[in-house]
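User: These chains co-purify. Model them together.
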Amino acid sequence: MPANKQFLLDSRPKGEASASNFRMVTSETPPLKDGEVLVRHHYLSLDPYMRGRMDEARSYATPQPLGEVMIGGTVGEVVESRSPKFRAGDKVVGMGGWQEYSVVATDQPGTLRKVDTTHVPISHYLGAVGMPGVTAWYGLMKIIEPKAGQTIAVSAASGAVGSALGTLAKTHGCRAVGIAGGPEKCRYVTEELGFDACVDYKQHGDALSLSKALKEACPNGIDGYFENVGGMVMDAVMLRMNDFGRMAVCGMIAGYDGKPVPMSYPQVILRSRLKVQGFIVSEHPEVWQQALLELGALVGTGKLRPRESVAQGLESAPEAFLGMLKGRNFGKQLVKLA
Amino acid sequence: MPANKQFLLDSRPKGEASASNFRMVTSETPPLKDGEVLVRHHYLSLDPYMRGRMDEARSYATPQPLGEVMIGGTVGEVVESRSPKFRAGDKVVGMGGWQEYSVVATDQPGTLRKVDTTHVPISHYLGAVGMPGVTAWYGLMKIIEPKAGQTIAVSAASGAVGSALGTLAKTHGCRAVGIAGGPEKCRYVTEELGFDACVDYKQHGDALSLSKALKEACPNGIDGYFENVGGMVMDAVMLRMNDFGRMAVCGMIAGYDGKPVPMSYPQVILRSRLKVQGFIVSEHPEVWQQALLELGALVGTGKLRPRESVAQGLESAPEAFLGMLKGRNFGKQLVKLA
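Assistant: Joint model of the two components:
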């Protein structure tokens, strides 16, 4: 059995998360039992939701237990199988965690899924054709419910969720407007992803200034907004929402470190008769098949060209994760493991 | 033609509204043209939305013009008619404004409606069997969508909207929990309106303290919340919302004076996957008939016994209005005009 490097959650953050919250260990992968497969991970996905799991506090999910392997999505290859459902060589996506190998009991539905890497690079099954892509799809189709001609905005637009959101909005005949940090990301959002406009929030010191810039980018206001960050960006967008606008709330990165991040203008919810709705994509398994089909087609035909930030080797995972929480990644943050 | 005392909006408030924003004048009601009726107002309704209309700022409605009669709902009696639709003696509800008489062109649909005062006192057509009642009905039935056994909370529970909301929630098999200011209002809410519990927000200095009291009143959490006030009360309730809870946002009194009143815990929207939705009942004419039917039955059968604060004479309207904005009324705030 191969040696398996792993990252455990060693302590819970007090305020901001730090590398010292994680501890690397090496173990031997256990021998397979009947029904199990051994997967060698090619990529580990790093996602904002992980920060929430690190806390003891009530969240929508059970906390990550201390001393156990950090939770995380992975893609890789079956290297040994004692399951009739998989054979060595199969490419698979699952929740293998922050480690190089995982042993998976395949009799539980949904733990491991075979993927076709003919037209879609395997890493994209952690991004545009995976959980982040389905997240964008659900928020857009089930909460925002876009209509042709409407303006749809998204924060963290160059990221895995944002890029899929904008591309999907365009396919529905909408004006897609991104919000991202820095000229390089904004250029990518408009030139490579095909958004109609992108506003660099780093050019603005407060919500009112950012809101003015959004007015230029959204001359007809904003009908649908996909919220990935919260805080100042959310405030600025709310001031531009049209009557009967819809806000899908998927992330509040600004608040993950326990600092209170209020919504400054809740009266807009009444004034503009907004619907503001939070969701977690894993609670809506019924949409995954259709969503993945549409997203796979967008990537396979080149209509969606997701960008990735790839850190090398499991050792780099903590720093890459902390950097992502600060927006230092550009596109989907991955760790290459093999 | 009778002399008609009127209140005009004389100036827009800077911050808090004051009596000096209104000016009383006396005019003669003009002679009727064909299709018009003259209505003598028995009661004027005072409602929180009027504060929003006093501002120039963008609101969901056009601002009240300066120098014109203040907008307002009225019930009264037709005293002269040149319309085939009404005859002298008819009891009617309409938007007659802050004045003793109004001349109404009856060819525009919805301007004036005959009401039956056999089982329902006329004043209730401005409250439980009028706009406030339908407001409660819409928020409950179309946004909160109550299920038997769930807990439904409402702020300003002793008011016209709140009392109807709680009574309706009870008829749907829900636990109804009110939030009101002071022991007298709370006693009325539980003993006369039949709510299961009522929390006195004036006993609490901050949202966390109020939230603890709500935990006792709502041992199974809160599934639906009808928001009439905003601010600290909203914050406290949000901390108690159950997963997939619904918040119908109808009022933000706390913010009407232009002071910023942030939402302190917007991350709860994500964490608990809430739906938070603003609405204005006048935009949903399709529900009025059914809602008024149900509300009329509740009042007619004594299941809903709305309370009223009645100020005497048009002269008292500004002070009564300003007092209502500060929560000094007890139940529906009216001005008796005849």
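Residues 131-144 of chain B form the longest helix (14 residues).
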